[in-house]
Amino acid sequence: xxxxxxxxxxxxxxxxxxxxxxxxxxxxxxxxxxxxxxxxxxxxxxxxxxxxxxxxxxxxxxxxxxxxxxxxxxxxxxxxxxxxxxxxxxxxxxxxxxxxxxxxxxxxxxxxxxxxxxxxxxxxxxxxxxxxxxxxxxxxxxxxxxxxxxxxxxxxxxxxxxxxxxxxxxxxxxxxxxxxxxxxxxxxxxxxxxxxxxxxxxxxxxxxxxxxxxxxxxxxxxxxxxxxxxxxxxxxxxxxxxxxxxxxxxxxxxxxxxxxxxxxxxxxxxxxxxxxxxxxxxxxxxxxxxxxxxxxxxxxxxxxxxxxxxxxxxxxxxxxxxxxxxxxxxxxxxxxxxxxxxxxxxxxxxxxxxxxxxxxxxxxxxxxxxxxxxxxxxxxxxxxxxxxxxxxxxxxxxxxxxxxxxxxxxxxxxxxxxxxxxxxxxxxxxxxxxxxxxxxxxxxxxxxxxxxxxxxxxxxxxxxxxxxxxxxxxxxxxxxxxxxxxxxxxxxxxxxxxxxxxxxxxxxxxxxxxxxxxxxxxxxxxxxxxxxxxxxxxxxxxxxxxxxxxxxxxxxxxxxxxxxxxxxxxxxxxxxxxxxxxxxxxxxxxxxxxxxxxxxxxxxxxxxxxxxxxxxxxxxxxxxxxxxxxxxxxxxxxxxxxxxxxxxxxxxxxxxxxxxxxxxxxxxxxxxxxxxxxxxxxxxxxxxxxxxxxxxxxxxxxxxxxxxxxx
Length: 711
Description:
Number of strands: 37
Structural class: alpha+beta
Largest sheet: 8 strands, mixed
Shape: globular
Helix content: 10-25%
Distance between the termini: 33 Å
């Protein structure tokens, strides 16, 4: 070996050693906070769990706030050297986004509605134009003005009355998904004095434009449990309760059919559905049960002419089928098959038009859109040509039209909004997502779908994207993302922010693990309840496959997931910590057993059909065997960044806080362990579109820094 080569190698070794020594010195100087141990015994089924950090659930306790703030301070100090990089990442991601952007307008009841953003502002402006797009713009809500003075602001449930004069809307300024509904006179700008608190934010008008139906939440659990009727101009205290969902495993909601003929009250749990219907022109009438709930029977309803169309799993239709029933006799025994059940095709949704039925399907993991004419003269699919795309039916409020609006994007193709003429089969691209900066060229990136093999022999699909020219030599940094719960499928979608990783050499992979519905309903059933561990072992199998195929290596493999995906992160670091160099867990659901035993916490009772009810011993024992918090042991863990929000209503802040405290006590490595609690936000993080980018920049800087990429 040449002397110059030896000197070069020695310099590399010295530089690496210096880096490690610098980090170790930093960690020596900056000591992480230590949470006090205040052990309590949690006993169930003759089993005792000792929880040293249970006290952290006291949100108002100054000691708790102090601990969270000390963790935030530690995070700030340990990442101080990345702050400038975070800022540059933020500016880079922001620079790709068109600031003065607007949605594609859609027409409803004589008005064109659009949402737009103004340059330099964080929040949307909602507006409309009468009859033509050349008409004068009416501002419905400028959320930039409404958000002034609030650290968090979200408007939801914007709902226009049939006479076009009133707008009902919900506002959350805390980020606990707890909305206050008010009513605005669009013509005068007046906000009426009625203030309806503790709601979902959603509402629906009756045909008279003065009667409003809305959903109340339980004060403590935030479960959507009651439907009320409000009459414009009357006191909220006089509102009439029209439905009370007494089963605490169900949530309820209210809406109006696309045909505008019926008001619908829905109730649903993970496994069971029930609906009630009432003519929209008879708001004081009694709602009639469509089909009484039967455990395990799921269905959804759409109205057209004198029939309802029922999307259901009835008669063991695991992947769902479409049935039809007269609006006068809606009980299940009268349902007739329209689109039969198919073993390998998941029927996801339908959209009804005057002359057409549009069916959204999933076949071998891929989105398909089937267009059928009611008179039987047309039946065809929209053509899509690769394996890493996402296509879905978009906003189509107009019933009497031949135009279908849908969206298409892929891992390499920015999103397009397309109007498709279902009669002529001509399409018009109404809008293509712009990637500003002039640097993005889809031809510089490669996407592919690959299949790993799980422990039980099941093939697990993954969608990958990376910069063209990458070599499979095991040296590529790779971020593997997963969720895998509730049947929620993470489709391969385009992201402008992700380019900041791809352009720095990262591969991005979505693991389509069991617990989603990527490969049909059975894919979900095999990743829940007493089969939940399949979700975790699938993800690990994907990681091992990526390593075996030399896409990456344990030194360069990273994992990310949020909420139930945070549970996934917690499980994999307990089960296979040496596979990953770093993990990002956002708002992670990690204290599974304790949370599922506490029916005062939002979501708990409604989650029994997803995770199991630990009041039953078999579910308790199984949950305990994978619950990340309960399974932290004395071992090495990867570098970890964990984020949460103090006001999170979905996953309470104390779950990640307790988890970090226990990890700090037991882990045997010197790797980074960081907890960042947003003291002003909840489950969705920051509310402004650019504020949210700062959170992404923080996560990306954490990953890139571990790869010694700092610019």
